[in-house]
Amino acid sequence: MHELIPDITLCILFAWMLGLLAHFSRQPLILAYLIAGFCIGPFGAGWVHSQESISVISELGLIFMLFMIGLEIDLKKIIRAGKVILFAGAGELIGGCLIGVAFFAAIGLAIGGGKFDAVYLCVACALSSTVIIVKVLYEKRELDTLPGRITLGVLVLQDIFAILFLAVQPSLANLQVSVILLSIGRVAVLVAAALLVSRYVLPRLFHQIARRPELILLGALAWCFLVAETAERLSLSREMGALIAGVSLSTFPYALDVTAKVTTLRDFFITLFFVALGMTIPVPGLSVIGLALMIAAFTVVSRLVTTFTPLYLMKQGLRASLLPALNLAQISEFSLVVIQTGIADHHIAAETANAASFAFVVLAVLSTFVMGRSDQIVRGLIGPLKRIGLRDLDQEGQGRGEDGHEGGHGEARRVVILGFFRAASALISQIERQNQSLLEQISVIDFNPLVFRTLSDRGLHVIYGDISNVDTLLHAGIGKSEMIILSVPDSLLKGATNEKLVRHVRALNPTALIVATADLLADVGALYEAGASYVTVTRLSDAGELYSVIEAADAGLLDDKRAELDAQLSDRREVLP
Questions:
Q1: List of domains in the chain
Q2: In what order do the strands lie in the sheet with 415-418?
Q3: pTM, entire model
Q4: Do the Cβ atoms of 455 and 462 come closer than 8 Å?
Q5: pLDDT digits (tens, 9 = 90+) for 414-443
Q6: CA 299, 301, 320, 538 torsion-angle sign
């Protein structure tokens, strides 16, 4: 153990240096950590060669990673998950595992006799990278879009699936019904005990030390390692216990505070985990590279098939079915955890584990690139998919009006709303309350299947289409409309900007009144030059509302103002609440 501190020093130093290179070259940090581990490990320069150090570093990293994954699992969101997410997640997990076992067994990987390479790989390939997906979707501001919510929902279900697999994983070599039930029973007991303690005991303790941040952090870590060690005593694993410890705290009143305080420590040990994992990767031979490429190709193809298919069958449209499939097309960090548990129990060959690690690296790089350009990729795929016979929502009830019959693309409405997000949702609700007859003169164009169905069911004229496509605007009858409203800010538009849309609309309709939205004050002039008749700046209306709140508070009328707002909200039926 005397070598542990110098070894950790080397790990952190190289992780930081290669992390800087990855940051400036816009590559995943995880890739940098793996390369750092390889460079200093036994198969690289050999500066870290102690197997004991590598094992300790790796296990600590695993424990903290799973503890934080558990903290971030929102049980309430799982319970509230809609049928679209449940069916998409079930289709991806069940379909992916069944196809995976068949595929990996067919290419000669072990599936019995104490070796379960095919089983571990099919599970690993069924899980997607939360770190990569959340980071890219956050940067693209797509976490709150329909494809983003579906993607995150499937990720949560994948975490639950991984928990169940880890419960039975130690018993794979003796997989009998009684053994499975016993393993699940142990997990159930541990989960129940952890939830009860976190519900009735820990809140009181943490309330007493709420003003002592160091005790909050120490208490969270003590809880993590207590449950982890209890799991070890129950013949589960410390990693499994750490995950349960995190899940039990996810509903904890101080969960947000705990997460904030543990995050820095988590990042430190997760870095060590991936560096330690990189140390175990030898220089690949042709067989390892070949298997890694097959694993990567299988992951992408299977994800497209098992995620796109259930979403398409649930009539989510081609776009909302393709985007989650592209988002999820990589291997998870959790997959590496699964593989490492298999290595520890001698269930999987070292060559298979190395190939899975290389596949993870390949997909991490490719997925970051693909997700960054997913809108362009999906637009390119929709045309060919339609030509081979797949129908989109614009071919299934396009532009249904108030009578429920088909409305032609070119049917002109006096007012057209291009793009439908929260501002448009509030506008429609306001019109419903103040001028119902105006709804008959409005047409909405958007490619959100939820918006399409909800507005159609309410009798509004709605067209499923991409507003950045000039053909969509042309066929929607924009040239005959009197007013066109662009209510979606540039930060949320895909494939277009308000200025670009104004120019397209003005070219198609020289006389219409065009209302556009500006994110920045500097955009207002450019929008007027492009042909806008009026530009809304939402920050001005927000400022006016906030100032009225200050005035009400100064006058002692804040309760009255709140009651007025509650009255306005009570009878609103917004499409996007």
A1: 4-383 (1.20.1530.20), 398-570 (3.40.50.720)
A2: 461-464, 442-446, 415-418, 483-486, 513-517, 534-536
A3: 0.71
A4: yes
A5: 899 998 988 899 899 888 888 888 888 899
A6: positive
